[in-house]
């Protein structure tokens, strides 16, 4: 099959779950028992090069049933499409998937369907980057600015960011790109780690992991808070004693509080100099975040991992509701919408510090931050990517950290490809791990 006539032949889905709740990895005030999971999709083609597009969206367990079904509902939009046309214009599939009126009714552009669209769109970009023989960050950074603008949906955000604004930002952002790329390849992109701070960890484990993080070169760690104030005061005191005064400690409430509680609780922890308070209240409460920001300054307000689309991000920026914008690679509608959000952040001068961790989120979001540094913001000052040292071994091109920095990936694609053996072992409910686990539970019963 020639490259010009190759088509998408299949859209395969997988329900992949890992039993992380058993060690309390990932535990926080709102999610005490998460099983880190991925609703995983593979775009298969009949092209002679054999490339596939891999993508996923992150969940924490049973919701994967719904999420995999949502991805499957998009299959008719993909099978039979020209691979060359799809990879030459990923925005076309993004527009088609969002524009399906019957599925759009379930959103629009939010929730399970939007996350499914993000998984598919990310798989298209993975395929495009593999066919181009480049890691996605480099493909994006060296792309023609006019073409990048064509990939952005400006509907509902043109009052804050016009195509002309975006083109100006991208043209200006290219200045010094070569020097920054050399710096990125040498030093990497700064990260911070949440690994010490899960709510279910003992003070001893917190201390051990916090000290290890500093030894590993991290200049910022993060602690989960919000379940019990006395516990949080003790844990913050413990963490500050472990890392000293020069290391930033961010705190994350995972949407636990009302607005007034958020202000009171954050101020009660202020003596330990928290750098930011993350997700202090509902991700949909734009004015609430603005009130919290006024009430907790100089502690910064950060949010974004559950913000559902570019329109909500626009409003958070317009009313000055956040100091740190946290994109998520798999929450919104994939790369195309994240381009819009990065451009909005650049327009408003707000630093982007992505959410990561989970299953494969570190692998994905590094590409978006590296593009942002090289071709848009031009800086890593006060910008860090979250890092959690979980489950990277299941990916064929896992994240590599060096001295607290993400090493720029060089493997072509979006770093989304999981090992076939991992898919076979952790596919739910009939993968080898889960089948054996279920059999063991039945025997115990």
From TrEMBL:
<dbReference type="InterPro" id="IPR029065">
    <property type="entry name" value="Enolase_C-like"/>
</dbReference>
<keyword id="KW-0460">Magnesium</keyword>
<dbReference type="InterPro" id="IPR034610">
    <property type="entry name" value="L-fuconate_dehydratase"/>
</dbReference>
<dbReference type="GO" id="GO:0050023">
    <property type="term" value="F:L-fuconate dehydratase activity"/>
</dbReference>
<dbReference type="InterPro" id="IPR036849">
    <property type="entry name" value="Enolase-like_C_sf"/>
</dbReference>
<keyword id="KW-0479">Metal-binding</keyword>
<dbReference type="InterPro" id="IPR029017">
    <property type="entry name" value="Enolase-like_N"/>
</dbReference>
<protein>
    <recommendedName>
        <fullName>L-fuconate dehydratase</fullName>
        <ecNumber>4.2.1.68</ecNumber>
    </recommendedName>
</protein>
<dbReference type="GO" id="GO:0016052">
    <property type="term" value="P:carbohydrate catabolic process"/>
</dbReference>
<dbReference type="InterPro" id="IPR013342">
    <property type="entry name" value="Mandelate_racemase_C"/>
</dbReference>
<dbReference type="InterPro" id="IPR046945">
    <property type="entry name" value="RHMD-like"/>
</dbReference>
<dbReference type="GO" id="GO:0000287">
    <property type="term" value="F:magnesium ion binding"/>
</dbReference>
<feature type="domain" description="Mandelate racemase/muconate lactonizing enzyme C-terminal">
    <location>
        <begin position="203"/>
        <end position="299"/>
    </location>
</feature>
<dbReference type="InterPro" id="IPR018110">
    <property type="entry name" value="Mandel_Rmase/mucon_lact_enz_CS"/>
</dbReference>
<dbReference type="GO" id="GO:0009063">
    <property type="term" value="P:amino acid catabolic process"/>
</dbReference>
<dbReference type="Pfam" id="PF02746">
    <property type="entry name" value="MR_MLE_N"/>
</dbReference>
<dbReference type="InterPro" id="IPR013341">
    <property type="entry name" value="Mandelate_racemase_N_dom"/>
</dbReference>
<dbReference type="Pfam" id="PF13378">
    <property type="entry name" value="MR_MLE_C"/>
</dbReference>
<keyword id="KW-0456">Lyase</keyword>
């Amino acid at each position: 099959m020639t490259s010009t006539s190759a088509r998408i032949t299949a859209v395969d889905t997988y329900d992949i779950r890992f039993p992380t709740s058993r060690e309390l990895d990932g535990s926080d005030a709102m999610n005490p028992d998460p099983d880190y999971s991925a609703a995983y999709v593979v775009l298969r083609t009949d092209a002679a090069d054999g490339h596939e597009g891999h993508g996923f969206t992150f969940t924490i367990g049973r919701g994967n049933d719904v999420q995999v079904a949502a991805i499957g509902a998009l299959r008719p939009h993909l099978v039979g499409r020209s691979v060359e046309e799809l990879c030459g214009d990923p925005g076309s599939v993004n527009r088609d998937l969002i524009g399906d009126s019957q599925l759009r009714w379930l959103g629009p552009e939010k929730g399970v369907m939007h996350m499914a669209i993000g998984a598919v769109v990310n798989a298209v970009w993975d395929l495009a980057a593999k066919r181009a023989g480049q890691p996605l960050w480099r493909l994006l950074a060296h792309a023609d600015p006019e073409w990048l603008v064509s990939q952005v949906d400006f509907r509902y955000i043109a009052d804050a960011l016009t195509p002309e604004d975006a083109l100006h930002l991208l043209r200006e952002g290219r200045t010094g790109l070569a020097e920054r790329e050399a710096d990125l390849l040498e030093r990497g992109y700064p990260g911070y780690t949440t690994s010490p701070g899960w709510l279910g960890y003992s003070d001893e484990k917190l201390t051990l992991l916090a000290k290890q993080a500093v030894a590993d070169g991290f200049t910022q760690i993060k602690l989960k808070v919000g379940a019990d104030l006395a516990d949080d005061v003790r844990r913050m005191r413990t963490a500050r004693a472990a890392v000293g005064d020069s290391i930033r400690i961010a705190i994350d409430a995972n949407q636990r509080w009302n607005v007034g509680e958020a202000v009171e609780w954050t101020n009660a922890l202020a003596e330990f100099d928290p750098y930011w308070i993350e997700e202090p209240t509902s991700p949909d409460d734009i004015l609430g975040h603005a009130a919290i920001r006024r009430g907790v300054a100089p502690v910064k307000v950060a949010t974004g991992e559950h913000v559902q689309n570019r329109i909500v991000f626009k409003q958070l920026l317009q009313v000055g509701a956040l100091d740190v914008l946290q994109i998520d690679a798999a929450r919104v509608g994939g790369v195309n919408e994240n381009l819009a959000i990065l451009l909005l952040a650049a327009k408003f001068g707000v630093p982007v510090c992505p959410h990561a961790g989970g299953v494969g989120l570190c692998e994905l979001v590094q590409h978006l931050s590296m593009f942002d540094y090289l071709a848009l913001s031009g800086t890593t000052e006060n910008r860090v990517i979250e890092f959690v040292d979980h489950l990277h071994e299941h990916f064929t091109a896992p994240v590599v950290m060096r001295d607290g920095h993400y090493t720029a990936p060089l493997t072509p694609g979006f770093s989304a490809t999981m090992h076939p053996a991992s898919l076979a072992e952790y596919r739910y409910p009939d993968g080898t791990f889960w089948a054996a686990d279920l059999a063991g539970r039945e025997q115990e019963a």
